[in-house]
Every structure is written in C-alpha cells, then in structure tokens.
Design goal:
By secondary structure, the protein is mostly helical. Helix content is 67%, strand content 0%.
C-alpha cells in the first residue's frame, strides 16, 4: 500500500496536474498546441463524420453500391423506398 501511495505521489499526480492545470508561463499557449487542435478538428473529425455516414448508409441500404455497380434494376426500384432517394436524372 505504501508503494502505491509513493507511486501516486511521484508519477500520477504531477501528470494529472500537468494535464488539467498546465502552466504555460508568460509566453502564452505554445504554437504546437494550436497545431494539434487544428489537426484534430480539421482532419480527424471530418473523417469520423464521413465514416459514420457511410456506416449509416450501409445499414439503410446494404446492397446499394453493389447493385449500382452491377447495373441491376433493383437498385432503381429501392431508391424510392429509402430515406436517401436519388433525385438526380439518369440516362
């Protein structure tokens, strides 16, 4: 138990303090923190949005792309039955 308390005092508490109460000093927030947030919000989140939209479309119409690639007429019949209708004119 004493080893656990020493471990908490030497490793965990300073790490948690640095995460939740950072001390940037007089220079303000460092530029790499801005870069990290830009990367997260401009790249990671849009990829998640695209992936979740693709998963949702896969569950709504699982054979949609496969039927469209085959050129089957079943895909055009199912378009009106989904919540994502294809309203674009096709030849």
């Amino acid at each position: 138990m004493i080893k656990l308390v020493k471990f908490l005092n030497t490793m965990v508490l300073p790490f948690l303090t640095a995460i939740f109460f950072p001390d940037y000093g007089y220079q303000g927030i460092p530029w790499d923190l801005y870069l990290l947030h830009f990367f997260f919000f401009a790249i990671v989140i849009p990829f998640h949005v695209i992936i979740f939209a693709a998963r949702n479309a896969q569950t709504v119409k699982p054979n949609g792309v496969k039927d469209w690639l085959k050129g089957e007429t079943k895909a055009t019949k199912d378009d009106q039955a989904t919540i994502f209708p294809n309203n674009f004119p096709t030849a």
